[in-house]
Write a structure and sequence with these properties.
It is built from 5 helices and 5 strands, in the order βαβααβαββα. By secondary structure, the protein is an alpha/beta fold. It has a 5-stranded parallel sheet, with helices on both faces.
């Protein structure tokens, strides 16, 4: 699967970044190869509130996008406001690899029909932004 020019897509809220996210992005870069592209999608503020509750997000969309753009493993950051919008973005990029957390094994992975491969990545140390926020 790894080559020199894979397009790798991953997405999430990325509200409070933690080491699990960095390891995910590092794996995406490894899978993309040196000539490939890592594309990260993140939810709009309204979608985060709908999915996670009215007190979320902690960091607004503009800050989350800036945080993501500052990470050396990431080439492109996209935003989406609905599942349909997310599917359209994945369809637009037609990634070679859709990299997603292993908590989605056995569940529907949005946009998987537009990717050549789906790779599940193990959660690092049980970390989750929601668990960190709720501490």
């Amino acid at each position: 699967m790894p080559s020199n020019n894979n397009i790798v897509w991953t997405n999430g809220t990325f509200d409070v970044l933690h080491m699990g996210h960095i390891k995910l992005f590092r794996e995406a870069r490894k899978l993309a190869g040196p000539q490939g592209q890592v594309i990260v999608g993140t939810d709009s503020d309204q979608r985060v509130s709908e999915l996670k509750g009215p007190d979320r997000p902690i960091n607004n969309l503009y800050d989350r996008v800036d945080f993501l753009r500052a990470i050396k493993y990431i080439d492109v950051v996209c935003t989406y406001s609905s599942e349909h919008n997310l599917e359209a973005l994945i369809n637009q990029y037609r990634p070679d690899i859709l990299l997603i957390g292993d908590d989605y094994i056995g569940k529907r992975v949005v946009g998987s029909e537009f990717a050549k491969n789906v790779v599940f990545y193990p959660r690092y140390g049980g970390l989750s932004s929601s668990k960190i926020i709720n501490r």
